[in-house]
Amino acid sequence: MSAAGYFKETLSPLILVFSASVVTVFYTLPAVLFMAFVYFGEVTKPCLLAACVAVLACKMAAELAATSPLAKHLKWTVAPFLFCLISLCNVWRFCSCVVVLLSMKFGLAKLSENFKSPRPAPGDPLRILCLGDSFYPYMDGVQTFTTNTIQQLTKMGHEVHVFTSVAGPDKLFDVDVTRGAGMSGNYPGHSLTLPSPALFRALTFRPHLVHLFDTCPIALLTSFVLWLLDIPYVWSHHTRIDHYVQFLPQPGPLIGIAVLRAFGTFMCNLCSTHMMVDDAMRKETPWLQNVDDDCKFFWKSGCDVNIFTPEARSASTREWISGGRPDLPVVAFVGRMAYEKNIKLLPDLIKKFSENGLENKCRWVIVGSGPADDDIRSQLEGFSNVVFTGRLGKEELAKVYASSDILFNPTVTGGCDLVLLEAQAAGLAVVAPRLPVISIVVGDGIRGKLYEPLNMEDAKRAVLECIAALERLRAPTRAHAEAEFAWDRVISDAVKMYRKALTSPSRY
Description:
This is SQD2 protein. The protein is of the alpha/beta class.
């Protein structure tokens, strides 16, 4: 027998099993066409059509009986068997596929027993595995989420384990960490976690549930593993990665966005609980569009209202960040100095306040560091109305917040940036782009002013209006942050979603 014939007789049933599984999950035309290609010349069109109709009928029946325990077996077992039976028209191949499918099902079920704990009773403490690329000591907005999630969960009596490749100690806030293989990212201390056997070492923690933080490569790949092992998990989305990819050199944006959309759509459909810090993501993020609405939930951002407080105000800090003019309003930018944060717009805005009689309207302080640092500094060299502080620790940052008057934010690639909440906790008014969740958090004319995204002329208007009504706009910000964004409230909401995910039926 030729090599091609041997391949067709021996390996094609395995290919069929894989294809049938894909069809069972997504019921897509490409998988059907792939089947037709593999068996071209041996499978008639009526057979393939009958197989597709049978699979779709199984899906419809499963959806109609979604509350029945039989629904999962209808999707996972009956549909692929029917597909194999009708399309193969061959007893030996059909039996081979049945054996492989059953082996996969029972093998994975047995394997999953070693990697997950039995479902907890209502009210029992949870065992949670947190997974992602943004953990302390690396600093960014998502790291603030992971840090406070770990600390609040342990404070509430839950057990937590961390899996990441970010370099650090074996324990993080008294929580054990498993570190896998990683690849250096664009920022100091950042690491992209890669698939490795270390993931299964982390799963020996036997979690009730896994929390994937953001749309990072390891979260995309791990979601498929968790789905196969039937381990419940939730996926929180913090940034618009498709926007970030646009800042890569060509052809990165074209290839990256296409891959993200395809990969993200495939993986996100497997998850029953998506938590979005920006409610607009459910309508705008490309790979979440095909996810059922009842799987998407808004997860409110939080901030440390005990660290960021008006009481941190310091006369010496005010003197420093105002460039010796503490009598003038101070407008602060706080964040990573990166182009995806739209930092390139800041010099244009600051220059508008150095002309037309606006020189003494306010002073600017830029807090943070990153790849765009030298570029921004060079553009503003010689301007007396701006001060650069570089990267600050949390205590110094709290002093800068409290010693400023207004926070300016140009970013449109994130959801609701944590700096908006930290600034409100410190008693600042906020000037930010007019985006859905930001509009809710800031309240145009209530706790700050909004402007048209990326439009620095409109941003100038918003800053001037904010200065004119500064005391009125600052007055309600602290109380609003305490009532809405304290971390204990935010993580309590997360635990409610964890418990909901534990009782949600597995998708597909």
